[in-house]
Q: What sequence folds into this?
């Protein structure tokens, strides 16, 4: 089990991998105590040889990941991940790089009929016909030296991935669905997917009331929390949790004594910089003029959903998913179906490959030119 700890060794491996059609990549990281993930290990393999898999130690003194980042930028080598979002977030936020061209075996597996959000262990069992030892999954990856068990576990995440990738890529070629996967991956390589601007953080907080005045306090508190968490690199929940934020927006404490009465605020947040930030946020929110209150998106609340039509669309979705052997949730969500049944047309399920598979017929069902019939165990479309 080769562990790379120098830039020179990493450059040599990446030069070797550059001659291959693809590489498989995975990472191990810690995030329990930080806002941003701490990269602890990178696993890379290529198909050039059975043992062509390495562990790259980003914590090794003097090691630069630049040779690997250069390989990520090389358009001639496909970069294969499983459930890539968190891995991509690390490389984008730390280095400003997205591996391209990208292939995500979890997305591809959904397109190829393996179900919704299929796990790596399932694909290893079904495609590679192997088992996985997951005993090292929750170990501390920042501690050195790594144990042999940790190294074996980590390497398995990229060695079996070679078999999985080749199987799924062949299946996508056979069914001519590679374009579907590329459309799905566009979101994963969009910087907006990973950048959370503090002024927009309030939109992620769930509240029971959406009154403008109340949401002004939610907005200012959420913005302070996000900025504090990003600046200090601590989890936002360590500043204060959502339930405490909503409580603060309701009680509107004006001084340290008021903060001390909070039921949900952590003890550390009742003093010092966090307490000062909370009180300043409350003061700013109190000065909002009504015309400056944050506007909550209520468009979905106003939808006049035709429940019967929504039910018919659900039947159509199930039939189409079974016919195409694709996960239902990948084609359309419940919210998509309700929006279509309410007359909305700017819906993901009506665009791209989804329109070909489901959306076009869904529109025909909506406008009355197509109906549903049952023949035996199958639902089929009939022209009206």
A:
């Amino acid at each position: 089990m080769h562990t790379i700890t120098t830039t020179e060794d990493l450059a040599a491996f990446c030069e070797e991998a550059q001659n291959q059609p693809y590489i498989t990549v995975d990472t191990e990281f810690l995030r329990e105590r930080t806002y941003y993930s701490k990269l602890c290990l990178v696993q890379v393999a290529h198909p050039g040889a059975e043992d062509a898999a390495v562990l790259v130690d980003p914590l090794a003194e003097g090691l630069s990941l630049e040779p690997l980042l250069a390989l990520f930028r090389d358009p001639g080598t496909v970069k294969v991940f499983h459930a890539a979002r968190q891995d991509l977030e690390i490389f984008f936020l730390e280095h400003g790089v997205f591996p391209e061209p990208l292939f995500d075996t979890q997305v591809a597996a959904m397109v190829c009929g393996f179900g919704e959000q299929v796990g790596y262990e399932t694909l290893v069992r079904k495609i590679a016909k192997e088992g996985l030892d997951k005993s090292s999954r929750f170990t501390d990856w920042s501690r050195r030296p790594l144990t042999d068990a940790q190294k074996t576990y980590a390497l398995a995440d990229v060695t079996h991935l070679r078999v999985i990738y080749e199987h799924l890529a062949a299946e996508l070629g056979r069914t001519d669905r590679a374009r579907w996967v590329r459309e799905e991956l566009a979101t994963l390589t969009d910087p907006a997917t990973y950048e959370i601007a503090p002024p927009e953080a309030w939109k992620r907080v769930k509240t029971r009331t959406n009154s403008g005045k109340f949401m002004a306090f939610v907005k200012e508190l959420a913005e302070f929390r996000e900025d504090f968490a990003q600046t200090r690199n601590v989890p936002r929940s360590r500043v204060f949790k959502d339930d405490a934020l909503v409580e603060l927006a309701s009680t509107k404490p004006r001084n340290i004594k008021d903060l001390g009465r909070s039921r949900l605020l952590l003890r550390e947040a009742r003093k010092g910089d966090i307490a000062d930030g909370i009180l300043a946020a409350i003061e700013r929110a109190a000065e909002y003029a009504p015309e400056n209150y944050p506007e909550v998106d209520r468009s979905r609340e106003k939808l006049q959903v035709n429940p019967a039509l929504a039910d018919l669309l659900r039947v159509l979705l199930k039939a189409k998913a079974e016919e195409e052997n694709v996960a239902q949730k990948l084609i359309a969500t419940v919210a998509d179906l309700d929006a279509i049944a309410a007359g909305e047309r700017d819906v993901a399920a009506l665009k791209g490959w989804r329109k070909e598979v489901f959306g076009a017929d869904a529109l025909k069902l909506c406008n009355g030119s197509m109906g549903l019939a049952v023949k035996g165990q199958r639902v089929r479309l009939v022209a009206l």
